[in-house]
Amino acid sequence: MPDTPSPQGPFLQTPSQTVGPFFGYALPYPGGPDVAPPWHPDAVRFHGTVYDGAGDPVPDAVVEIWHADAAGRPIAVRGSLERDGHGVTGFGRTAVDRDGHYAFTTIKPGAARPDAAPHVLVTVFARGLTHHLFTRAYFADEDERNARDPFLASVDASRRGTLIAEADASGGYRFDIRLQGDGETVFLQFEGVAR
Questions:
Q1: Mean of the per-residue pLDDT values for the chain?
Q2: 63 alpha carbon, distance to own chain's centre
Q3: Which pTM was predicted?
Q4: Higher-pLDDT residue of 24, 127
Q5: Could you give the domains of the chain?
Q6: What are phi and psi for residue 188, nearest 5 degrees?
Q7: Intradiol ring-cleavage dioxygenases domain location, by residue (predicted)?
């Protein structure tokens, strides 16, 4: 049996490509926006609109959310893609509608640490993006915790509001996402780890 040559030098990351147009059909799955069942006593609606740099709704984005349970602990109930109609999964994915609007049924998470504020991790996939975007949504009704959250405090005060989900009349939270331009949402960049 001939020897298989081993690769020389470091392994390189595969170059990324522009997202879509397939993602709006391939990524969503049944029950994706149902992080918690609507009848859950702590269920809230987490929703908003994805806007482009001109302020127009993006009709073909996909939004994902992750968050802790009400006590701030990671959720591991039956896997994130499996929906049983009873548990809170802590993960959801949905496509926006033609008006760029998305909505999840979920619960408000607790704070993971005493010095942190409750928040939802949000990922956006949209046309023209080379990489999906990461951000966080904090809650407007958590002023004291928001004031002492180390990450939120590290964001320029003039842009901090782009990370705040506002309480609405339905008892839910509205978190609009602006991909660029005036009021652009603060997005996070994660550095790769050398292997």
A1: 85
A2: 6
A3: 0.83
A4: 127
A5: 23-178 (2.60.130.10)
A6: -100, 150
A7: 45-181
